[in-house]
Design a protein that fits this description.
Blueprint lengths: L1 H31 L12 H15 L6 H43 L21
Helix pairs in contact: 1-2, 1-3
Length: 129
């Protein structure tokens, strides 16, 4: 009777960890959509990250110990959040660099944002002497 009772208690716990694992996998799939550039081999980083996540999940597929599964889920969540935070920091840095580059370019070119027609060397509304 104690064995059946124990099995009943583990049932919902395993179901919860499976649900959490599936939630994490879907979260990984969503966040990998952010990685739209290609690696050195010409493969989209999105696809590389998804393949690696799939390998990790397949490697742990037959794990039955809820404590180990929870550790894997926590480690996975932490990794996803670190990568996403790093991505957003880098993205914001690129945007700031681009904005300051455009700002300095517009200051140098008389407020025209760095765009000029070929052969045009004038500076907007300058008066000739």
């Amino acid at each position: 009777m104690a064995k059946a009772s124990r099995k009943f208690q583990e049932g919902p716990r395993i179901l919860t960890t499976r649900r959490e694992a599936l939630h994490l996998y879907r979260e990984i799939r969503r966040y990998t959509n952010l990685f739209v550039w290609k690696d050195d081999k010409g493969v989209m980083w999105r696809d590389v990250l998804r393949a690696n996540a799939r390998k990790e999940y397949e490697a742990a597929r037959h794990e039955n110990d809820p404590e180990i599964i929870n550790k894997l889920i926590i480690t996975g969540r932490d990794a996803v959040h670190r990568v996403v935070e790093s991505f957003w920091r880098r993205r914001n840095q690129i945007i700031q660099d681009e904005a300051s580059r455009q700002e300095s370019s517009s200051n140098v070119n008389g407020g025209r944002g760095g765009l000029s027609a070929p052969g045009y060397e004038g500076g907007g509304s300058q008066k000739s002497s």
